[in-house]
Structures are given as C-alpha cells and as structure tokens.
Amino acid sequence: MQGRKFARSVIGPRVPASTRLNPRLSSRSCSFKPLNAPEEFSAIEMLSTTRCIGRQRIRSITPLAILSSPSSLSPKHQLPTRSLSTAGLHFGASRDHSKSPFAEIQTGRTRTTLPVFADVHAERKYRKEQLALVLRILHRFKMAEGIAGHCSVRDPVEPDTFWVNPQGRSFALMRQSTLVRCRISDGKAVEGDAPVDASASSIHSQIYATLGRGKGQQGGSDGGAEAVVHVHAFSALGRELDMINQDACAYAGAHGLIKFGGAVFDNQEGKRIASHIGKDKKVAILQNHGVVSLGRLSIDEAAWWQINFEMCCQAQLLADAAKRPGEAFEIAGAAEIESTKAEVGTPEMGWFCLAAYVEEEEAWSKGDHKL
Where in the numbering of this chain does the Class II aldolase/adducin N-terminal domain appear (predicted)? Predict the structure, then answer.
C-alpha cells in the first residue's frame, strides 16, 4: 500500500479503469484528441499523447517499481526536465501519408512530415534556431576544434544572404542571436557585430553563389544549396570510401576529393572549392584540410552528412586495420548500392536522420539556443 500511495503522489490521482487508454479522455486528465480529430498532429500533441499513454500503462501495471522521484536519481543519470506544453520535436506527422516523403519506409497510422511555415520570417527563426542546435550537436560529436569550423544556412527572407557562426564562440553555447548574417556576393557581414572567420565567408558565400538555391525553393533545384557545414575531419589519406556498409552507400558518387590549396582567406579559393563540389556531391574532402558537407534542403541535412560521413570513415579505418594480408573487402553490388542510396541518401532522409540528436539537444538546451 505504501508503494501505491507513493506512486499516486508522483504521477497524480488514479484514473478509473474504465477511462484508461481511452482516447476520449478529458483534457484535464490528458491531452488526447477526440476521435474526430483532424488528420494532422503537431509534434507537441503527439509527444503529450505518448507520455499520457505511458503514464496510464504505468499506473495499471507498475505502481512503484519503475516510477521514482527524479530527485532520487544520481546527478549523472538525470536528464533535463521539460514541460509538455513547450516540449516536442521539430517536425510533425500526418495521417495523410501522401504528405510525407517517408510514406513507403514507415509503418503505423501516421507518417513524418517536413516542417511548414506561415511565412519566411517564421522560417528564418526556425533556420537560425536549428543552426544553433547543429553547432551544439557537432560539439557533442567532438567536431569543434578551437576556433576552426563553421556552419551556415541561407536566409529565407533575403536569400542572397546567409547566417553563420561567429569565430571564437563556443559551439556548445551557441544561440540564434549570436549568429552573423553575411552577403553571398562578397561574404561581407550585414547583420551582427561579431567577427567571422574569413575562410567561412569566402567558402560559404561562393558555394551558395555557384550552386544557387536548393531543393523546393523558388527558382531552386536539387543541385542547389541551402546549408553548408565545414569542420576539420578525415582528409589525409587521399582516398574515397569503399562501399562496405549500408551507410557508405549514401555517398556513392556523392563525395569527392579536392586538392589542398592552402588556408582559405579570399573568394578565389572559395570559388575553386565550389566549382569542384558541383551539383551532385553531399560531401567534399578538402585534402589535408577538412570536410565540407552540403544541405540541399536544410541545415539538419548538412549536419547529418557531416556526422554520418565521419562515422563511415571510422568504420573504414577499422575495416582497414582488421583486414589481413591478401584479403579483399566484400564490396556491395552496384544495384544494391543504388537502391540503398535512393532510400538513405535523399535530402529528406538527411534532414530526418538528425532528428533524434535535435530532440536530445533541445532537451539539454532548455531553450537556451533560442535566445
């Protein structure tokens, strides 16, 4: 009985058995929608529903064993707490499967949908917040190296400009208000007072200028660019990935080497890099320098290609080290490579693959990235 009392004090009053898991529960008990609800749900509503379903199940089968006061957990096991009224993922879902680019690869009643914005100013706010989150995520993956590294996203209000992180500011503490807006034509800052790495303004501006607007944008194309991520990573071996696992297939014919041209401080080197990237590359390995990844659709996509490419490089090095003399890799077949790339190598999938890391970083940030 003591256990039951403790459980009720943690999760609230008991709910009559007749109402458990009932989608007609009142909003006072839970935030379920009525059965005649619209076909689309926001991420917040879905998260709230999921949490409430979980609570009802816990009430009925686990009065105390799983539930314990958060304060009883050791500090290293405590996650930041979030209010259901403000928490949620950065995407929603729809029961109209035709609205989702993932209709054929997901199951269940709903499908994940790309974000939709009321206007370009709402999209600007979203893009800046996502860029701040991406920088924080890269820090967690140990891709922040001193003052090196820079990420940017095209501005939807004035698409001849882009937002980029200032030099010398921690990736781990980045806020949307810290970002600087630069012109694509010459890389000069037009908003924000913090200094920007000269290589950032020169590389990013020339990629945007050369490739044009990205997928789904007015006047854009599948070969355009909406975001760029550059960090100092795998770039010393002068080779491309072998197609030895499923993840690597996403980069088949979509990554390449660019010879080292020294430190980048002017637009001429930026133009050279941009001309080699072309309209079909996800990743460019700047020999003896670092890696550039592109988002044809979003900053999330560019970040995922950067993170996942590094994972593939690590797998490649481990495989190289494990291979015995005289052995050869079992390379995936051409047809399998192409079909896998068509599934896991799309801009939409690149955007979605970062979602779990975005959710985690939003939890840790507690909204600080939005300031």
Answer: 129-317
Which pLDDT tens digit goes with each residue over 184-222?
Answer: 998 999 999 999 998 888 899 999 999 999 998 988 899
Q: Within the chain, where are the H helices?
A: 2-11, 43-61, 120-140, 198-211, 246-249, 267-277, 299-322, 334-344, 347-353, 355-365
**Does residue 225 belong to any structural domain of this protein?**
yes
Is 5 inside any structural domain? no
The domain total for the chain is 1
Would the CA dihedral through 18, 22, 28, 30 be positive or negative? positive
pLDDT of residue 360 exceeding 50, the answer is yes
| Residue 55 CB contacts under 8 Å (≥ 6 apart), including other chains | 11, 12, 30
273-296 b/e with 16+ CB inside 10 Å = b?
Answer: bbeebeeebbbbbbeebbbbbbbb
Confirm whether 213 is domain-assigned: yes
Total residues belonging to the chain: 371
- Give the pLDDT band of residue 276 (cuts 50, 70, 90): confident
